[in-house]
Automatic annotation (TrEMBL):
GO molecular function: hydrolase activity
Species the sequence originates in: Tripterygium wilfordii (Thunder God vine)
Pfam families: Metallophos
Sequence ranges assigned to domain Calcineurin-like phosphoesterase in this UniProt record: 12-136
Identification of the protein by name: Calcineurin-like phosphoesterase domain-containing protein
Length: 313
């Protein structure tokens, strides 16, 4: 290997929300492999931005695909961020870490109790000490139509019906915990809420810039101390009913001011769109909708790759 190659910046692929669309994931992976130098791809850092389950038909197959990557690509590093959907799936099957202050998961219900009836929170076996998001995920929403998305709900407010079915149980069944294989339980247990890299290269107008990178499913909250937020996310602190960094919208859109002093890339999925503004990268072209592509961004080149691209091998 020449010195030039040794000093070449490492390739980083950030892959947006998959939402149970296994075929899209397979096609996207094939396209990434086709358009990145084989040597660079074989040692790339691959960051999955979360939301592996719900909406699409094969959440189980998606997790199987992800679980197989480390043995197929042993020199890559794979990061599996938790999305808000995966958090809720983990909550439902009981693999979230307990709140660090010894409080009970049922304490997370209080703030949102007014929504319980409309959202049809899960009341089956094991609900008594289930995190709020698990109950919302496994519940039965009373309205059929999601006006914001223009689609029908698939079972719950999270569209979790297809996830249950991919494991062979009906939506809302407490049998799901038994139906999920152990390696999938481990995958959902081990997902991280945040991933940080000290030195990632990005091509900008001025050439190659060395940046810190923070990957988190929705983003970091504005107006809140960044170090405090990072601490909560690194430790997976489950005492809050809603983790804004995984499920927020407007409040997590921008890069917090204190991170703009030193160049920091903040990359997320979640928002149902592709948005690239300076070092704020939002990679979720799919939004879990069948007709939309699943996208990835490749660093340092900032190239966008989609499952629908027809790339010549």
């Amino acid at each position: 290997m020449s010195n030039h190659e040794k000093n070449k910046p490492r390739v980083v692929c950030c892959i947006g929300d998959i939402h149970g669309y296994l075929t899209k994931l397979q096609n996207l992976w094939f396209n990434l492999e086709s358009c990145i130098d084989p040597l660079e791809f074989s040692s790339a850092l691959i960051i999955f931005l979360g939301d592996y389950c719900d909406r699409g038909p094969d959440s189980r197959g998606v997790i199987d695909f992800l679980l197989n990557l480390p043995s197929k690509y042993p020199n890559q590093d794979h990061v599996f961020l938790s999305g808000n959907h995966d958090f809720a799936f983990a909550a439902f099957i009981g693999v979230l870490p307990p709140p660090p202050d010894g409080s009970a998961f049922k304490d997370t219900w209080k703030e949102y109790e007014a929504n319980e009836e409309r959202e049809g929170w899960f009341k089956g076996d094991g609900y008594e000490n289930m995190h709020l998001q698990g109950r919302r995920w496994g519940g039965h929403i009373t309205v059929r139509f999601n006006a914001a998305k223009g689609t029908e709900y698939k079972g719950s407010i999270y569209d979790a019906g297809p996830t249950f079915e991919s494991y062979g149980v009906p939506h809302g069944s407490s049998e799901l915990a038994k139906a999920v294989p152990n390696e999938h339980r481990k995958f959902l247990t081990d997902m991280v809420w945040i991933h940080e890299e000290d030195d990632v290269c990005v091509e900008t107008g001025e050439g190659i810039t060395h940046c810190k990178l923070i990957a988190v499913h929705a983003g970091l909250e504005r107006g809140k101390n960044v170090e405090e937020q990072l601490k909560i996310l690194r430790s997976k602190d489950t005492r809050v009913p809603k983790v804004d960094a995984l499920s927020g919208r407007k409040n997590v859109w921008d890069i917090p001011k204190e991170l703009t002093e030193n160049p920091t890339v903040v990359v997320s999925g979640h928002h149902g769109k592709l948005h690239i503004e300076d070092l704020r990268l939002i990679i979720d072209e799919g939004g879990g909708l069948e007709s939309n592509p699943v996208a990835a961004i490749v660093l340092p080149s900032m190239k966008i790759v989609r499952d629908i691209d027809h790339l010549a091998k």
